[in-house]
Amino acid sequence: MRPGLRERLARGPLRRGAGRWPARLPRPHTLRARLTAGLVVLLAVSCAAVGVAAVVELNGFLTGRLDQQLRETGERFPASLEHGGNRPSDHDGGDGDTRRQTVGTFGARLVGDTVTNAAVVGSSTGTGAQNVPLAAADRRTLAAVPADGRGHTIDLSALDDYRVMAVRGRDGDVLVTGLPTEPVEATVHRLELVAAVVFGAALAVAGFAGAMWVRWSLRPLSRVAATATKVSRLPLSSGEVGLWPRAPEADPRSEVGRVADAFNTMLGHVEEALTKRHASEERLRSFAADASHELRTPVASIRGHAELALLHPGPVPQKVARALERIEAEAARMGEMVDDLLLLARLDAGRPLERLPVDLTRLVLDAVTDAQAAGPGHRWTLELSEEPVTVPGDAHRLHQVLANLLANARLHTPVGTTITISLETEETEETEETEKPTAVLKVHDDGPGVALDVQPRVFERFTHGDRRRTEGVQSGTGTGLGLSIVAAVAEAHGGSVTLESAPASTTFTVRVPAGDG
């Protein structure tokens, strides 16, 4: 055994990973993996501690036995080297003292700090003691061994590791006796190998069994996590909320059981709150629909009376005529708003629209013609595909989408703005077998653009453009419902509408499924 082996064995395995996860090893992410890894690490530390303790204890025990042999052997063999008659030779050397020594026994005699004789007992075949050629370093090592009658481990280059004991001779010299440590090292190494194999197998079995046990123990928590994942995929932004899944019941005395119970209670509260929200939305939609329906008649009556008063043949004061004109205009505007609110209420209620083939190219041409008449100060350009684009849907509502987009571009951009309307079809892969075309309508203008704070809510109801975008435009503003109707009609046709806006570049893009329906 090398010098300091006891200290290295006691120190080496326990210093690794003290308090920190090794930087090169991936950290386990799941709770199951962490618990399994922690169990294996604790077991590995325990096995390492047991193995180190066993190796250190066995090494100490065998070394003690070796020291006991040295005490029993005493100084007989090195003392025999003092007398000429017992001086070993390369051929026969040694007397009876030599034959009684263990094979490999080392003996040396020192006078002062000088080694005068050094020999080792050969094999049991009768070779006797043999001289040992010592290097200068070996001689210094032997001279440094204290003559205290205790065992010391040294390394001789000519022999190997030895356990030696030095005592004072009768002539004032120092007699050194030694035995090889190779049998001790071989036994200790064998124990290390056996311990590594046994503990490695134990770690593998314990790791597998621990993983199964942790998986079984955390199964209720996995069910809670699966339920939470299902709930997270439910559409909660709007609409009616159905019966949500609940986490399976577990032992309420356990931590997992308490988590499952709290989670189910939370789901109940959220479900109740969303149900109340949906009921409130339904009441609001019903109110809007009823109010819009009820307001159509009185608004039409007000407008009719104003028109009738303006047709009076007699003289009407100028101020009265102006007031009647304003009443007629505001009544018309209120009528449009009532119609828009009623349309939105019906779309929110999910009422189906017509599904007939609609020539969207013809609708674009008609809508642009109307827009040119309403906004002659703008430059209108068309970019249409060679083939007509047909979509299944409601022709009246699709025309309303076009009219609202063009009116929005006209009302919120200054005179001289170029407005470009493009229509095309693009192929979108819906399944591996078929491709479903999509009609893409774009309305682009080079006006001042939509403010960043308005863009996220531009399709909400009663949203109006900012002052920067409306500077220099012609008088008159919309109801704030035009783009809301565009979005609602597009969604009712299975499509969508998006906005991309920057200074000098604003584009509304409407996508709806194309085809004959």
Q: Can you give a write-up of this model?
A:
It is a single chain. With 517 residues, this protein is an alpha+beta fold. 49% of the residues lie in helices and 18% in strands. It has helices spanning 5-15, 31-73, 76-80, 96-99, 136-143, 182-217, 219-232, 255-310, 318-348, 360-374, 395-411, 467-470, 482-492, and strands at 106-111, 114-121, 129-131, 151-156, 160-168, 174-180, 356-359, 379-384, 390-393, 418-429, 435-445, 496-502, 505-513. The strands form 3 sheets. Strands 3-2-1-6-5-4 form a 6-stranded antiparallel beta sheet. It has a 5-stranded mixed beta sheet with strand order 8-10-11-13-12. Helix 2 runs antiparallel to helix 6 and helix 8 (255-310) packs antiparallel against helix 9. The longest helix is centred in the middle third of the chain and has 56 residues, at 255-310. The model is unreliable at 1-21, 84-96 and 472-476 (pLDDT under 50).
